Amino acid sequence: MRPRHARRGSILLLSIFFLVTLFFLAMALLQLLPVELNAARWARMNQEASYAADAGITDTITWLEEVLAGNQGRLSDLTEDFERGGSFGDWTWVVKVQPDQQTRDNNPVRVFRLTSVASLDGRPHRRIVADVRQDSFAHYLTFIGTSSNNAYWRLDRNSKLEGPMHVNGIASIAYDNQWFQTGVPFFEGTYTASGFHVPSGKPEGFGDGVRYRTTTGFDNSDTPYNEDGVPIPERYDRIFTRGREALKTGVREREMPSTSRNLATEAWGETPLPLDQGVHLDTSSSQANKKGILIQGDVENMQLSVVQGNSVMTVVQGSGDARKETRVTILSENGMTLPAGSEVNGAVLPRDLVLDTGNTVVQKPDAGGRKVFAVAPGVTNGLVYCTGTIHGLQGQNKGRRTIAVDVENNKEIVISGDLTRQDTPVGEKPAGTDDLLGLLGMNIRLGDSVERNLETPLQLYCSIFAGRKNPDGEYEGSFLVDDLESSGVGKFIIYGSVVRAQDSPWLMSWVNSSGAYVGSTGFVANMKYDAAAAANPPPFFPTMPTLRVLSWKEEPYR
Amino acid sequence: MRALRPDGMTLAETLVSLAILAVLGLILLRIYNVSHQAYGRGTGQIALQQKARFLMEQMTPLLLSAAPPHEGAKALHSPDSASIVFYVPDKDFQPRDPHYVRVGIYHNDVDETVWLENSVTPYSSQDEMFRSRELARDIYDLRLGLPTENTVRVTVEVHQKTRTAGGGQDDQEYLLENLVQIPYYSKN
Fold first, then answer.
1. Contact residues on chain A for B72, CB-CB shorter than 8 A
2. Three-state secondary structure along A394-413?
């Protein structure tokens, strides 16, 4: 018999052969598995980290909106950096909230940078950086606090609404019965409405929520959706530049504020308002740029102008012997010399006083043959608050400014002429935000002194906020035309935004007893959207307690 | 006298064992070839996945930054299935005076490259200038779609030749599809 040791070699060889083969197979598997496992693990972790960081941003935005709405926390807490934290499953997130400089200075349009970092077991994995900005009413080209059953936006082939529009209530649109064949999109921006109209005889939720009217009547088949309520895209494309998606009905109501008293505080501070009629300015150096200009009493005329590069506001109060003229100069470009013998902040000047730029000068009516000045350091916070009605306002504005009156006491502003701006040639669309004018009152009126001439339209470079929601929940006030029914047709062009509590007509069309058109009175309106002013509105122009995300950057973070 | 028993194997035994070994060897060779091929395909697949994921990882953060350049505009446009145009915040973004630049991603199917093109100056300025750079190469196909206003469907297709067991070549492909939801729309 063959010795055992003689047969061992082949088994060894076979074993080695199998071992080598299995080794290669195992190696291949070992190389494949970890790569796949790692890829899957990283994909899952990235996804989870992204969700966690996103949760931090969402939570912080919601919290900030609650604070802005006055439901939680204090607004004054939002002027410094702070952090918020939370968890999302096994993940934790920390959001750093950084207000920008203007927010730190208590600008009512608040801007924050939110940096959310998601961590697992204390190790950061992902970061999201988002810039958010508080919404302002200036965001809308036109805003209507409450919709009227009789007020329709009539689609016109010769004009357009270039920016967003919002209505609290039902959106109503009228057009001729050839519109879906020959019409051109009228709404270039979005159209949002808090109400939802259901055509008669149709079930709840039928249609798109808009009340349509054509020359053949209401609720007929001439709608942009078919009889089953299914949208007809080509019809929406003839109403909205962005088609059906530009229309949103049943959205949240946007409430207008009920008072403008907070603006009096911004202009004068917490101390009681001075009672004597006139223009008041806090002259203490500690209040530089923190307060505005307060006007006590009615104003007969307010003229805005630019003199030697400086913004000037001439205020006339009273009439006849009681007429008082006050001139406010913001020394932004050039200084000023006050003559010796003048009274400045209660003291008589022994010699000429040279003022540098960066001061505000109020020249009050002369007293005892002496010029009287109030001089305050800084260029004010841009707010002019008047406790009475401004019966005439016109001129050229320089700088960022809001002129407000007491809406709670039904005070108004009457526009008596062009309102232009220094940084933009008349007739051109504004490009910057250096010179912005906001007007706020119960009613903003186009006065009867404004010439009605279609060839020379009234030029209004301003954002208008007219009216309020009173404590009874009713909207009152509007942007009106005085003596609407008196003869003559004019035109106004507004570059900015028109926010009004109630819809009101600016143009009346007249028909005779047989129904024939005999003419119009009032003003043809041409509204131009100022996107820059919408993003960076005039100071203290009313805001909403909502935040808009403007930028979003998501990246790994280790 | 004791009969002689040869120490070696008979011819038959040798032939049988050789045959068994040959069959075993062939089986093992086949297994080796298959495993080698599987290894090759596996590593090839990894390379393809990495290539597709690399492109996806480059594109996704850019898409997540998309925002409309102004009120009423859309953040995303897809002129055709091989390109997408969107807007992202300018380098020196100021929330109180926001400016956005236009970004385009498109696939060149001639040289199988993906390009990123972005305007150097903010969108809508008169002197808009563009800068291009190659984002990825050897991308067989890139399909970009907008199923909804706020979602981008990105489909990356990459191909590669691998050696077959018979010494031939096999066309290996990998398809990666992802839906990117733009946060701007869900937050505003």
1. 163-164, 188-190, 241-242, 246
2. EEEECCEEEEEECHHHCCEE
